[in-house]
Amino acid sequence: MPIQVLSLFVRGSSLDEKTSKFIGKSTPSLPEKGDRPHPRESRVGLPDVEIMPLATSAMDDLEEHKSLFSKIGVFSLLTCLLQPKSRGTVRLASANPRDRPKVDLGFLQDPADFEMARKAVRLALRLGDAVKAQGFPLLRGIVVPESEEAEEGMDQFIRRRARTSYHFSSTCRMAPELDPRAPGVVDDSLRVYGISNLRVCDASVFPQIITSHLQAPVVMVAEKCASMIKADASKE
Averaged over 84-100, what is the pLDDT? Predict the structure, then answer.
């Protein structure tokens, strides 16, 4: 099984709108000590795109994989939006707790996500060209947009190839119960509002998705939750 050994993290503001060439914008200045920035301002200097080089097709469609890649070696550049603006929903399907919930991932509902996705795909194509130029034996692009120039064609490619990386988060947000952005589910001690002796300690409590992979932060949250539970038990 191929193992990912490298990820590239890029700020969208450092990429040209049309070509994804680096334009070298400086990192935004950090707030003064003691100032509490707005959550959106605090994320301005964080990466928007991750590119994962993989020695596999990185496809969900098994039949397409078999028809295109079963007899050839493949090198993929999997692009990922780290700060998507689109939002999905998780709702109860019925009063039966055994019924699966209704999940709408909400992919690409916000036009800003297309803008960032275009930058990510163009950058991946430029990286692929650079790899070939340095002598790596990449013969041809197999799953690529027909044109880098036409936004409509690029958006069709993005819609066709969009997939999840299975890093779901923020469905039980840590936030005030009546937060105007989206109601909070747990308080800052991970306790579920309105229910005693119930806490949540997984990726669902993040107020908004972090700009990286979720595994290590989830371990951190779980360790903190365990410490809080033990501290509360010692007071009884």
Answer: 93
Amino acid 169 reads S
Q: Write the DSSP string, 200-235.
A: --SGGG-SS--SS-SHHHHHHHHHHHHHHHHHHHHH
What is the DSSP code (8-state) at residue 70? Answer: T
Nearest C-alpha neighbor of 11 from the set 35, 33, 30, 27: 27
Q: Which of 38, 65, 167, 213 is catalytic?
A: 167
Dihedral sign from CA coordinates of 214, 220, 223, 229: negative
Mean pLDDT of the chain, nearest integer:
84
Question: Annotated catalytic, 167?
Answer: yes
Cα(84)–Cα(48) distance, rounded to whole angstroms?
8
Task: Spell out where 55-111 has E strands.
Answer: 76-81, 89-91, 102-104
Instruction: Using alpha carbons, list the distances in angstroms from residue 13 to 25, 49, 67, 84, 105.
Output: 7, 11, 38, 15, 26
**At residue 25, does pLDDT exceed 70?**
no
Q: At 89, is the secondary structure helix, strand, or coil?
A: strand
Q: What is the DSSP letter of 41?
A: G
